Amino acid sequence: MSRGERFAALFGVPKFVVPHLACFVSEPEMELVLLMDGQKCSVPDLALKMKCTQLETRDLLESCYLKSIVNKEECGGELVYFASSFYDRLDYLCKFDDNYHVDQELSAALNEWCYEVYAGRMEPYLDRLQKKEEVDRAPEMFELIDNLEELLDSVSEIRLVPCNCRKLAGHCSKPTETCLSFDRSITDRTFGQVLTKEEAKEIVEAAHRNGLMHSVNSDWRTKGLAYMCNCCSCCCYPTRFALDRGTKGVFPVIKYEAQRDAVKCTHCGACTKRCHFSAFYVGEAEFVVKGKIRRMVEFDPEKCWGCGICVETCPHEAISMGALRINLKDG
Q1: Superkingdom of this entry's organism (predicted)?
Q2: Mean pLDDT of 209-226
Q3: Of 21, 28, 65, 304, whose CB has the highest number of CB atoms within 10 Å?
Q4: pTM of the shown model
């Protein structure tokens, strides 16, 4: 087994990436993972293996920790380090490393691989949700822009973090500097830009204008707001996963549904261009407006996910949001 193949096995690197390892780790970083050999190691142990001082070893480990090459934990009163994973390393690179660039073909392959890893990790969690068993975190839910003030008033610390889904997938041109972390979800590896509440409000409102939906942890009212993802359906891994698995209502939780006033609706079709789930769509029926034939816009409430981004796009205020009559899970 070559050095690169051994590193790939220890770090969870997919085979198609092995020829491109230099794009993701440096030689010293690769050597560190190889020396760890799948074990949890203390600074003194690694210093001996690396034949350098403990200070030099600790500096390298902390640098690699911040870049998601290694993780750390306390074990028996001692701090130990162990290899992270390629999945987590890629997450760091696509969000925070301005020098990270790969060609289009490799980028597309990485996106598909990452999505499959994400889906595999989510399957046990989803299974427990569907069985109504206890889970370690509440599922996400779509929240309305009307509740933004209340959401932001409930937090103390706010961090702007790039959207890793859109950074990896790149299926649309919507902005990527849109995701927010709050209070309890902010760690020493969250990075990103510290925001005031007013700055955060401006970012969410801009995301809303760009047609991005707002998802949060569904227990935010009782346990505090942890995050807000401002997402699309073409790139967002959780939304793609929910669409693939048909888990709407369980994951994500749905609290609202769109309502259309048929009298006010002029069938202009603006809502059909903004809806991520085709709840509003151009039907087959036709009618005449000022001598021109126009096809009627249909609305299927069963397809609505309650994100609410359709409301502002209607020039005649024919769309509003109402509380869902039956909530599958209380948010």
Answers
A1: Bacteria
A2: 96
A3: 304
A4: 0.90
Question: Contact at 8 Å (CB) between 217 and 209?
Answer: no
Tell me the backbone φ, ψ of residue 160, rounded to 5 degrees.
-90, 125
Whether residue 136 contacts residue 205, with contact meaning beta carbons closer than 8 Å, is answered with no
Other CB atoms within a 10 A radius of the CB of residue 271 amount to: 24
- Extents of the domains making up the chain: 3-94, 104-245, 257-323
Percent of the chain with pLDDT over 90: 93
Cβ pair 99, 92 in contact under 8 A: no
Span 73-85, pLDDT tens digits: 999 889 999 999 9
Q: Tell me what the mean pLDDT of segment 131-156 comes to.
A: 96
- The CATH number corresponding to 3-94 among 3.80.10.10, 3.40.190.10, 3.40.50.720, 1.10.10.10 equals 1.10.10.10
Q: Please give the pLDDT value at position 326.
A: 52
Least confident of 28-32, 58-62, 286-290, 306-310: 286-290
The residue among 169, 215, 239 whose CA lies nearest residue 309 is 215
Q: Indicate the pLDDT class of residue 41, thresholds 50, 70 and 90.
A: very high
